[in-house]
Specification:
Blueprint lengths: L1 E4 L5 H12 L3 E3 L11 H8 L8 E4 L14 H27 L4 E6 L12 H20 L5 E8 L5 H6 L2 H10 L8 H12 L10 E4 L7
Parallel strand pairs: 1-2, 1-3, 3-4, 4-5, 5-6
Helix pairs in contact: 1-7, 2-3, 3-4
Length: 219
C-alpha cells in the first residue's frame, strides 16, 4: 500500500507517518519545496509526477489564523482558504485517477473541532474546516460506487509543540479543565484513528466527521 500525507513533518502528521511506516505502508511526505499548497502550479506539477496507484491520501497540512474578522487581511483570508480547503480539493481531483486504480482507496481529511464549535478569532479557520467537512460528505456520495471511502477527523486540543508554544502554562490548565478527560490528546491517538479509517478494517464508514476531543465539544 502507498500513502500520500501532506504536512507530515511535525505534530499530528508526523505521528500519522510513523504509524503508517510501522505498519509497512509506503509513505510519501512532500516537503514545502516539492509541494507548495498555496501554488496551483506546484499542486499540478506535483500531482502529475505519479503514474501508479495511490491507495491512501491524507490531507493533513493546514494553517490556523487566529484573528478577529476586522483585523483579517485579504491575503490571510486567501492563505487560510487556499491551503486548508482549496488545496485538498485540487489534490483529490488531480489524484483521483490514481485512487480509482487502487482496490481499496481511502481519503482522510484532517479537520478540527473548530468546524463543529467556534470561538472568537476562529472565523476564517472555522470556515475552511467546515468546508472540508462538506467536501467529505459530498465526495462520499460521488465516489461511493468506485468505491473510494472518504472521512474527516476533527481533533480537539493536541499536545504538540505548536499548542505548547501558543498557550501559557496557565492557559493550558484552563483548557485541561474544559476537557472532560482533563488532558490534551497525544498526536499518536489521532494517528490511530486516521490509520483505522485508512486501513482494510474500514470497509463501510464514509462521509463522516469524527470528532476526537476528549469530550470538549459535549459541553
Amino acid at each position: 500500500m502507498r500513502a500520500l500525507i501532506t504536512g507530515g513533518n511535525r505534530g499530528i502528521g508526523k505521528s500519522i507517518v510513523a504509524k503508517f511506516v510501522e505498519n509497512s505502508i509506503e509513505v510519501i511526505v512532500p516537503t514545502r519545496k516539492e509541494l507548495d499548497l498555496s501554488s496551483d502550479k506546484s499542486i499540478e506539477e506535483f500531482s502529475s509526477k505519479f503514474k501508479t496507484p495511490i491507495d491512501i491520501l491524507i490531507n493533513n497540512a493546514g494553517i490556523n489564523e487566529i484573528s478577529i474578522l476586522e483585523d483579517l487581511s485579504d491575503s490571510r483570508i486567501s492563505d487560510v482558504l487556499n491551503i486548508n480547503l482549496v488545496a485538498p480539493i485540487k489534490l483529490i481531483r488531480n489524484l483521483l485517477p490514481l485512487l480509482k486504480k487502487s482496490k481499496s482507496a481511502k481519503i482522510v481529511n484532517i479537520s478540527s473541532i473548530w468546524s463543529i464549535v467556534s470561538k472568537e478569532g476562529r472565523s476564517i479557520y472555522s470556515v475552511s474546516k467546515s468546508g472540508l467537512n462538506a467536501l467529505t460528505r459530498s465526495l462520499a456520495i460521488e465516489l461511493g460506487d468506485i468505491p473510494v471511502l472518504i472521512n474527516s477527523v476533527a481533533p480537539g486540543y493536541i499536545n504538540t509543540e505548536l499548542t505548547l508554544k501558543n498557550n501559557s502554562a496557565e492557559q493550558l490548565e484552563i483548557i485541561n479543565e474544559l476537557i472532560p478527560l482533563k488532558r490534551l490528546a497525544e498526536p499518536q491517538e489521532i494517528a490511530e484513528l486516521v490509520f483505522f479509517l485508512s486501513s482494510p478494517q474500514n470497509t463501510y464508514m464514509t462521509g463522516q466527521v469524527i470528532v476526537i476531543d476528549g469530550g470538549y465539544t459535549c459541553r
